[in-house]
Amino acid sequence: xxTPKSPSARAAFVAIFVAAFLAVVKxxxxxxxxSLAILASGLDSALDTAISTINFFxxxxxxxxxxxxxxxxxxxxxxxxxxxxxxxxxGIAIALFVESMRRFLTPRSLxxxxxxxxxxxxxxxxxxxxxxxxxxTAAKTGSLVVKSDTAHYESDLFANLGxxxxxLAVKFFGFLWLDAAISAIIAGGIFWGAxxxxxxxxxxxxxxxxxxxxxxxxxxxxxAAKKSGKINGWHLLRTRRAxxxxxxxxxxxxxxxxxxxxxxxxxxxxxxKILQKIPRAIVLxxxxxxxxxxxxxxxxxxxxxxxSQK
Length: 310
Hints:
- This protein is mainly α.
- The chain has two domains: about 5-205, Alpha-lytic protease prodomain-like (Up-down Bundle); about 210-300, Cation efflux protein, cytoplasmic domain (Alpha-Beta Plaits), CATH 3.30.70.1350.
- About 70% of the residues lie in helices and about 10% in strands.
- It is built from nine helices and three strands.
- The protein has a three-stranded mixed β-sheet.
- It is elongated and about 85 Å long.
């Protein structure tokens, strides 16, 4: 496996080896000590390893340029990966919760306390730095896959702290049931995080509008252009996400008789302003010599409102 060049693929590459190392160590100490919470944490790290490996190859596919079969690019590959990952995580979380309930009813004593605590402290430190690295990469690239990986490792950080708390309680207070309880909480965290990823991937796959906050940024730019007289108006603004890209299209209304060159120059200037607010956007404008908003709606089988929000 060659070292990747893109920031997103490089982040997944690093996550694979960190998660794999933590999984091996946790499984060894978990079986040695008999702690279900450590084994649950090891299972979580093993899942992160598998997911980061899948992500590594998905990122390569998603970053391929557009081709004849995929003229809009391969951005949705990331959303597909995120969707199936979330379903897989939900299944694992349910199985882990069931096993935690069994151990809760029949608790067992733990051994090798010092080694267990040391391993979990090391895991906390490693996971913290990894999650910060992934978060910065996700913010820089806009990758949904790296963002989902970040969510995994941030939840792992709190889960590892929970395991440490449980081990301390078992050691000093004899609360054997707490080991299983912490394991159940980890299962709940995995389940909740998976639901969030499932919702996000579903929104991308169904072409849901971008957030109201981001959409308002575009509206402000278009309204400013109208106020300055560069355009007469605008309508039919549409947006959607596809992987790290944001697709934006709208109709711009110009004075009848404006040259195509001048209209194109204004469109390019507006595109540049939008890209400053929403990086990695793909902007497409349709130029209208008059406001045909109602005609466009009627062609879609919709009625033109008396007061329209364009």
